[in-house]
Design a protein that fits this description.
Oligomer: heterodimer
Number of strands of chain B: 2
Largest sheet of chain B: 2 strands, antiparallel
Shape of chain A: globular
Structural class of chain B: mainly alpha
Helix content of chain A: 25-40%
Largest interface: A-B, 48 and 40 residues
Strand content of chain A: 15-25%
Strand content of chain B: under 5%
Number of helices of chain B: 9
Number of domains of chain B: 2
Helix content of chain B: over 70%
Radius of gyration of chain B: 25 Å
Number of strands of chain A: 12
Structural class of chain A: alpha/beta
Distance between the termini of chain B: 70 Å
Strand order of the largest sheet of chain B: 1-2
């Protein structure tokens, strides 16, 4: 069992290769990765770089559900993936997928009931279920939707409801695949706010997301993927300011790109910002004419 | 009304809605609040009586009783509308066909090779009424009881959630397929393909839509299965229920017992013709 500073490693992959059935090339190719528990790990990469397959693998959807050839060593919470019972995995790892139109059960008449479906499956008593769903509804600002039929919601609303139903299950480890793909900037901020709260409460989160500016603010570490391989994994600042990100064709945060452009123009900022607040500090410091130095925040 | 009052009112309504889950589900009507299995047994008994008792009186009476039950259940208007359409579209056709080809005596009139007799008319009438009584019970059941309550009642009787999900999802799939078909038809229309006009034109536009509709449904089924698994659908613990049905009162048990007894007597009468 692999451990990380005394705690069991969240996910440990060693030279993992996965090829879906009836396809030629591998979706994951030689992936070696170790994720610590209690952190928010962002996963970025171009389309078809293997992000969703990585999520599916961590969650056990491959190879338990999607058939294919899996090679290498995969450990989830210290146990070999093949030793996990899929039913136990679903109770241990919450998972939100990217397509909101297939995330709704289709059998519930109201959003409130839809959010409770996971709790029903876990056998949670009614009163506890009601309290938990109420709390999640308030956290995600879904009060206006609770009476609505989930089958008649927009894509963005469905995405929030699907997210809420997984949050309600209160697992310690959550894998989230593009939770904001159908959401406007304001709703995306709300979702990230909730994810941040989860992280603060000690939950482990693996999050695939294209909105790199939001990852810059919230993620503890970032995994960069390209053509089924992990090209870089490390603390958010190190990854977002590195050339590996650009090599993987992933655009850096807007402010980081701006700082790079300024540097290229000979107007280097005191430090490379990755968030707007850092950019504000960096630009203010430069405008004040302070001597250049390393960012210590 | 101020915005604060408006928000306060909405919060109270939301709280009322949530509080509703703490009480047994109700449709606000004594007939519709009966246990779905009780309703099924009563309506099933009526259908059995219509089939088992010879003659046209029993199926006619059952059809009338169905209308009365629908009125008592507060679904009279939609049920009578649907039932009338069934009578006109199917009942009449069955009656005419059966009467025309049943043969028998005395002969009432002859048109070419078709000879219509009194026996044929009575047999046709009975056949049509029995079919109407059976289809009426099915129609009324679905008018009275939402399918989710039927499945909940079955789950509470020990049917697996997997089985009830398949049934519920099958009903939902009918709606979803219709929606998807409309979306694809609209997309076709936007591309300039003629989707309206006479019957032949509409059929010609609709047939090519079927393949993508069913293929997308099959693809979505797999993703839905994974999404359900993510909600611990396959967990081995006993599932709990947010919505609950009210306990079955004694009068309902007695009522169902009487209905079943009547059906048993009708069946016994069919085997041993003592009336």
């Amino acid at each position: 069992m692999r451990r990380c500073g005394g705690a069991v490693v969240l996910v440990s992959l060693h030279d993992v290769r996965f090829t879906y059935a009836f396809t030629e090339g591998p979706a994951l190719d030689g992936v070696t990765l170790e994720l610590e528990p209690g952190l928010l790990h962002g996963v970025v990469g171009m389309n078809a770089s293997g992000k969703s397959t990585l999520c599916a693998l961590i969650r056990g959807v491959v190879p338990h559900f999607h058939e294919g050839t899996l090679e290498g060593d995969v450990q989830v919470l210290g146990r070999d993936l093949s030793d996990w019972d899929p039913a136990d995995l679903s109770q241990t790892i919450g998972c939100v997928f990217d397509n909101p139109f297939t995330q709704i059960s289709g059998i519930k008449d109201t959003v409130f009931e839809e959010i409770a479906i996971g709790l029903e499956n876990l056998g949670v008593p009614r009163e506890a279920m009601i309290q938990r769903v109420k709390e999640v509804v308030e956290r995600l600002g879904l009060q206006a939707l609770i009476r609505k039929n989930p089958n008649e919601l927009s894509g963005g609303q469905r995405q929030k409801v699907a997210f809420a139903s997984i949050i309600a299950m209160d697992t310690d480890f959550i894998v989230i695949d593009e939770p904001t793909s159908q959401l406007d900037p304001e709703a995306s901020e709300e979702i990230f706010g909730v994810i941040d709260q989860l992280r603060r409460h000690g939950k482990s989160v693996v999050l695939v997301e294209h909105k790199i500016d939001l990852l810059a603010r919230y993620a503890d570490s970032i995994v960069v993927m390209k053509e089924g391989r992990v090209v870089m994994h490390g603390p958010t600042r190190d990854v977002l300011t590195s050339d590996a990100l650009l090599d993987a064709n992933v655009p850096p945060p807007e402010v980081t790109a701006l700082a790079r452009d300024l540097a290229d123009a000979g107007k280097e900022l005191p430090f490379m910002p990755i968030t707007r607040s850092e950019a504000y500090q960096a630009i203010s410091r430069r405008m004040e004419g302070r001597p250049r130095g390393h960012h210590t925040a | 009304m101020s915005a604060d009052q408006d928000r306060g009112g909405a919060a109270i309504r939301a709280e009322d809605f949530i509080d509703g889950f703490r009480r047994p589900a109700t449709q606000g009507n004594r007939v519709r609040d009966m246990n779905p299995i009780s309703v099924f047994l009563v309506l099933g008994s009526l259908a059995v009586i219509a089939v088992a008792v010879p003659g046209i009186v029993a199926p006619s009476t059952v059809c009338v009783v169905l209308v009365l039950i629908s009125l008592a259940g507060g679904v009279g208007r939609p049920f009578i509308g649907n039932f009338s359409r069934l009578f006109v579209a199917i009942g009449l056709l069955l009656f005419v066909l059966r009467s025309a080809f049943a043969g028998g005596t005395p002969v009432l009139f002859t048109i070419g090779a078709i000879t219509v007799s009194m026996e044929g008319v009575l047999e046709g009438l009975r056949f049509a009424l029995v079919v109407m009584a059976i289809s009426g019970t099915v129609t009324l059941y679905f008018a009275l009881i939402p399918i989710k309550y039927s499945m909940l009642a079955l789950e509470l009787k020990g049917v697996t959630p997997r089985a009830t999900y398949v049934l519920l999802a099958a009903f939902q799939a009918i709606t979803d397929l219709g929606k998807n078909a409309r979306v694809i038809m609209d997309a076709q229309k936007a591309r300039g393909i003629e989707t309206e006009g006479n019957f032949v034109q509409r059929v010609r536009a609709f047939v090519p839509v079927l393949a993508p509709v069913f293929l997308s449904a099959i693809a979505a089924t797999e993703e839905k299965a994974i999404a359900l698994d993510a909600r611990a659908f396959n967990s081995r613990v006993n599932h709990s229920h947010l919505v609950t049905l009210r306990p079955t009162p004694a009068w309902e048990v007695v009522f169902v017992a009487i209905a079943i007894l009547c059906a048993v007597v009708a069946c016994a009468g069919a085997v041993v013709p003592w009336y």
